[in-house]
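I keep forgetting this: the sequence line spells out the residues, with the fold written below as integer tokens. I include a record here:
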Amino acid sequence: MKKFKFSLEKVLEIKEIEEKIIQKNLLLIQNQIYETEKKITVTTEKISAERKNVSELSLKISNSIEIMLHYKFIESLIKEKDAFNEALCSLKLKEINIKKQLLDKSKETKALERLKEIKFEEFKKAYNKEQQIFIDEISIQNHRLKEGMFK
């Protein structure tokens, strides 16, 4: 029996590897998004805690310099949060692009896999046809031998 050999097997393997690499990149970006969202949450909590702290201090102390320092700290936290939000937007854009790449690679891989299935079906049909021709020839020879024996 002949072995089935798909001529584009190496291309299919490369496409599958590329797809796995893109999946890995997507996972890394999603982890970065998660970490950035966590940093935003922590910074927001720090801002809330510091604002509460400032309101408590303003009731207790009338020292405006210390209160100003706390407001400056709050401003720096807000800037930090804004930077995290910008980074998050950038990461989400990267995620969208990677998802598009993954979709394209998946389509290419599926198309090659479908082509492989079609070629395998053609191979099976051709192989079955050869087998049938071979069986028919043997049957004809057996029939002729039997006819020759009975004459």
Observations:
- The chain has a mean pLDDT of 90.
- The helical segments are 9-60, 64-150.
- DSSP finds two helices and no strands in the chain.
- Residues 9-111 form one domain.
